[in-house]
User: What shape does this take?
Amino acid sequence: MRTGKYGVWLICLFFLLTGCKYDTVEEAIKKDIPFNIIEVIHIERVQSGVIVLYTTKQKNHFQPIEALAVAFINGSDKTGWENLGNNHWGYNNEHQDFSIYPNTFYKFDKKGNIKQEIPVVYGVIKNPAIKSVQVLGKERKYEDAQMIEKNKIRYFFRLDTYEKSRGVTEEGKIVSQISNLR
Assistant: This one.
């Protein structure tokens, strides 16, 4: 009887130390992201997993809102999938033309050293005149962010660190420019 109790404790300890991994990225998204996902907008493959752009229902000043969030799901179909965080959502109604959210994901080795750094910038385009979002990169030149349309809502997404973002019309006119504050 006593050995049975120790066996159960050892199994529980094993799961606590190893964490839960899921067989598919879809299962990890559904079960390992701590927010109620309304819709997955985009999945971007990165070196050791995927970055997931999604919407979630949250409360802002006690009012329900639809917020935008990203998650880093680490792994592969061979090794299993797990959410490495950093699990927070963004909601910014400050700018009328588009919202922007910078975020950086980190993967650490067993000693706590940064093994991988994945910066991302993303947002929602609100102004119908904006046909592209450009981001100012390290080389001091603007690059186009990836545009994604889902359910008549336009989003943008770009991996890497960027200083500024700007909304541009079809004619090339700059409508709005925002600094990417971290």
